[in-house]
Amino acid sequence: MDKALYLAMSGGVQTMNAQTIHANNLANVSTTGFRSDFEQARSMQVYGDYYPSRVYAMTENPATRYTQGDMIQTGRNLDVAVAGDGFITVYDESGQEAYTRAGDLQINAAGQLVTGRGLPVAGVDGPIFLPPFNSINITADGSISIVPQGGAENEVAVLNQIKLVNPDRQNLRKEEDGLIHSRDGQEFDPDPNVQLVSGFIEGSNVNAVEEMTHIMNLARRFEMNVKMMDTIRDNADSSARILQRSA
Fold it and tell me: Where on the tree of life does the source sit, at the highest rank (predicted)?
């Protein structure tokens, strides 16, 4: 009885964990540049002197979907979207390089170029700071040019270049901060083949219908595990009554 109960209990717990992954995907259906996550479950043996016959379910996040989301035109000069493969390099909260597809860029009070979440955007030589300007333009290769404040329209100055990378996806992982990181902790070199499209942002690549379908299927699976536990309890009660009568 205890083996079956453990199996049903662990299956229910891992089904809830799988629901968390898909619920997070669905919650970010409108998040700029969001990459949806996959989930899978597998059976794992419990190791130990007394548990060689115990098996439990384990849910894991094996990969992230890197397909491109919809391109949304905004006409805003600071909005950029990566065309095809590649990532914009930013600095995470610990100051380490991380990678994103979110190109809703802003200028903060210190004149620093940041993402919509406030993460500093990386240039070829570190963070990007801009002086006051009349207008700004970001070209396909990530170069940033401005017309300085008070300057003539033909006084264009190229100040920096956004670091664009296109690493091997096998060396990438998405962490809890929602950013893409390298698995080995190494920084990637700029890739001149990565191109930006100015005046656009990339939407999430989440398929809302697909995620809702997964959530409903997981809900039914959870109910099945609960019913299995109820059945095991009823069987245990019946066995106890039989033993009492025989005694």
Answer: Bacteria
Question: 83: part of which helix (H) or strand (E)?
Answer: strand 80-83
Look at residue 20 and give its three-state secondary structure. Answer: helix
Say whether both 79 and 152 belong to one domain: yes
Cβ 101 vs Cβ 198: under 8 Å: no
DSSP conformation letters of 150-178? T--TT--EEEEEB-EE---GGGEEE-TTS
The answer for residues whose C-beta is within 8 angstroms of residue 25's C-beta and 6 or more apart is 36, 37, 206, 211
Helices (H), the chain: 2-27, 208-246
**Can you give the pTM of this predicted structure?**
0.80
State which residues form the domain around 214.
2-65+206-246
The number of distinct structural domains making up the chain is 2
* 3 state SS of 32: coil
How much of the chain is in helix, strand and coil states, percent to nearest 5?
Answer: 30, 30, 40
- 10 Å CB burial of residue 110 (0-12, 13-18, 19+) is exposed
Cα distance between residue 143 and residue 159, in whole Å: 8
